[in-house]
Design a protein that fits this description.
The complex is a heterodimer. Chain A is built from 14 helices and no strands. By secondary structure, chain A is mainly α. The radius of gyration of chain A is 25 Å and the shape is globular. Chain B contains 12 helices and 2 strands. The chains are: A mainly alpha, B mainly alpha.
Chain lengths: ~325, ~325
């Protein structure tokens, strides 16, 4: 048990290091800092302004190991070297490890501050959608399992697959055009954080996110519950005379929940995707909106930081789930 | 007609031929024949398969270039549809005048699904966009299927450090939310193209296949026939190609079909986000992107969005249903 926990806890930093390396590879090796500078400064940049831009951010240093060479210094004098590890790679890694995310390439604002501002609106949108979506999908899945092997079950699965086959943006375009613009039930755009009246801005986006993910989730949970139904303990309970609903609501739900938790955590990135488009459409100033704007202005610093931050959260989530598993499930605890 | 057209034709024919060869080759095994006899009785699966064949046929017509009389070349589909006249601007489905409240102009012909802002026939655009979806799906599968399968088998068969390296690599990739990784890769690669999109998609797509194949390979290597083959002195390569590969191939097929549907959806999503198909390519994602503002016009222009979505929906739904049918056919106990 202790061994398992220790191994799991030590593995997480290793994975985080891997993610850091991949983001570095993408944003500093595949795309050279010089290209980055030219893209941002535009066509009229002189070698001197390009150099200044690179120098200000420390991107003019060698990539991996500092063995005395200089890069892109037009006036020819080498910069003051502070040892073998004074390079883009190690400086970036250090910054990421200390959660110093740097500044936006376009607006020049501190990213830590930008993310802090965007987190609350995103959370207000995602959390209700997450909870409501989970309960709805679980309920529907349990019902489909209750009527398993019937025409209703088959129809339900078909509807789930059909819901999955519609791209996310079509739900949003359609929802915004019909429910908000034509029927005028909800505001179609905007957000303000005041009191409970801010709810009216969130109601439609939240329901859209729920509907968007419902098909996928219900089908997945149904498969999990069906797997549980085939287990021996279910037959035992049946033999003891447990009713079908007691079987499902007490035995299967409880045991299936253990498997569901992993899916719920693994689903987080999908939620980010959903809120990404939804926030942009409804003008909610959250992290998804930030990312879309960054894509359109090619603000790579924001994309890089978002990728890194979400990955970290995800890894932490997965690790915590695994540890909870170990605490709950004796099969892992004793191995 | 120049050599690149011929090369393209050759690749299309070779690709289709290769898939047919794999299926013919695989169908010799008992497991595949039993699955086929079950699939034949599955009406949903057969209808889905026929629908996919229709999409493939339309896509192939748009991919194969044939010489025209004047020395140039055009795709078969373009030649078949060249009789449809172009208009000046929007027109509703089957309308006789163009879409303008102030001064409607008579149209040159009737359009079953109307025309878009530039006066192009929407039905033609929708059919031509098939090609983009199939190219993305096909090219990505051609990259990630062999990689994922081989890495999975290597990890499951050799175990030890090979397994550790492969497992670590995909855990790191899996820890970065898919959509963010895709956006990062595509932004960094610059200039949009279908090839780059396929490359990015294959980097994220191989992970789930590799995990699946690794697990199944581990299960297979426990079985006596592998120990027998080893005892008879067969080389590792022989065991992998002649014993392990045929026994995991059905999982690859199911993954290919289900993965294809995800790729089609991903293409639409990425094009919509502005990092996918190059501007001017007929693609469902680009059509949906263009239709974003059209619904809020007065009266609403709904037909571009509807036809692109319907075409995309049809393909993705058919792929999902066929994938489910295949899974049931190969593994009836766990359907």
């Amino acid at each position: 048990m202790f061994n398992y926990l220790l191994r799991r806890l030590l593995y997480a930093p290793l994975i985080i290091a891997g993610v850091m390396f991949i983001t570095f590879l993408l944003f500093f090796v595949v795309q050279k800092p010089e290209t980055m500078a030219r893209n941002i400064l535009g066509k009229r940049a002189t070698p001197q302004t390009t150099y200044d831009w690179l120098h200000k951010r420390g991107y003019d240093k060698p990539l991996f190991f500092n063995v005395g060479q200089t890069r892109s210094a037009p006036d020819g004098h080498p910069f003051a070297s502070r040892g073998l590890f004074d390079t883009v790679f190690f400086n970036q890694m250090w910054k990421l490890a200390t959660f110093d995310l740097g500044v936006s390439d376009v607006s020049g604002r501190e990213l830590n501050e930008v993310f802090r501002e965007g987190a609350l609106p995103s959370l207000l949108l995602m959390l209700p959608a997450y909870v409501a979506g989970f309960f709805m999908a679980t309920g529907l899945a349990l019902y489909l399992v209750f009527v398993r092997n019937s025409a209703l079950d088959a129809a339900g699965v078909f509807v789930c697959v059909a819901l999955m086959s519609i791209p996310a943006m079509v739900y949003i375009i359609f929802g915004q055009a019909v429910v908000a613009l034509s029927l005028n039930y909800f505001p179609a755009f905007g957000f303000e954080l005041k009191d409970w009246s801010s709810m009216r801005f969130l109601l439609l986006p939240v329901s859209l996110i729920v509907v968007m993910n419902l098909g996928h989730d219900t089908r997945l949970y149904r498969a999990v519950f069906l797997e549980e139904i085939g287990q021996d303990y279910v037959r035992t309970a049946q033999a003891k005379g447990a009713s079908n609903s007691r079987l499902l609501l007490v035995h299967v739900l409880k045991n299936g929940m253990i498997a569901l938790i992993t899916f719920v955590v693994a689903h987080l990135p999908l939620l980010i995707l959903g809120s990404l488009l939804v926030e942009n459409f409804f003008g909610i100033p959250g992290l998804g909106n930030l990312l879309i704007n960054a894509i359109h202005t090619s603000d790579l610093a924001v994309v890089r930081a978002t990728t890194f931050l979400t990955s970290i959260l995800y890894i932490i989530g997965l690790t915590v789930t695994d540890i909870c598993y170990a605490l709950v499930d004796p099969r892992i605890r004793l191995s | 007609m120049n050599w690149s057209d011929w090369a393209q034709n050759f690749l299309v024919v070779a690709g289709i031929g290769f898939v047919v060869w794999i299926v013919m080759h695989g169908s010799r095994s008992d497991r595949w024949q039993r699955a086929w006899s079950r699939l034949r009785r599955d009406k949903v699966g057969i209808v889905a398969g026929l629908a996919i064949a229709l999409y493939l046929a339309i896509g192939a017509l748009e991919m194969i270039q044939i010489p025209t009389g004047s020395g140039g070349s055009a795709t078969i589909l373009a030649l078949l549809l060249r009789g449809i006249p172009a208009e000046d601007t929007y027109s509703a489905p089957l309308a006789s005048t163009s879409f303008s409240l102030a001064k409607p102009k008579p149209l040159h012909g009737r359009h079953l699904l109307g025309t878009d802002a530039l006066g192009k026939d929407v039905l033609v655009q929708t059919l031509r966009a098939c090609r983009t979806a199939l190219i993305i799906g096909g090219m990505t599968s051609a990259i990630y299927i062999p990689l994922g399968t081989l890495f999975g088998i290597f990890a499951g068969y050799f175990r030890r450090w090979i397994d550790d390296v492969i497992q670590f690599t995909y855990t790191v990739l899996y820890s970065i939310p898919e959509i963010l990784l895709l956006i990062s890769i595509l932004l960094v690669l610059g200039e949009k193209s279908l090839g780059k999109m396929s490359l990015a998609l294959s980097i994220t797509a191989w992970v789930s296949l590799c995990r699946l194949i690794r697990g199944e390979t581990m299960r297979q290597t426990e079985r006596p026939y592998i120990a027998g083959a080893r005892a008879l002195g067969q080389s590792h390569w022989n065991i992998i190609i002649h014993h392990l590969l045929p026994n995991v191939m059905h999982l690859v097929l199911i993954n290919l079909v289900l993965g294809f549907s995800n790729l089609v959806l991903a293409e639409a999503m990425l094009s919509y986000l502005g990092v996918g198909s190059p501007i001017g390519t007929a693609s469902w994602g680009n059509m949906i992107d263009g239709a974003r503002g059209e619904l809020s016009r007065e009266p609403a222009v709904w037909w571009t969005l509807t036809s692109a979505t319907a075409a995309l929906f049809g393909l993705v739904l058919a792929l999902n249903l066929l994938g489910d049918s295949l899974r049931r056919a190969f593994d009836p106990k766990r359907g």
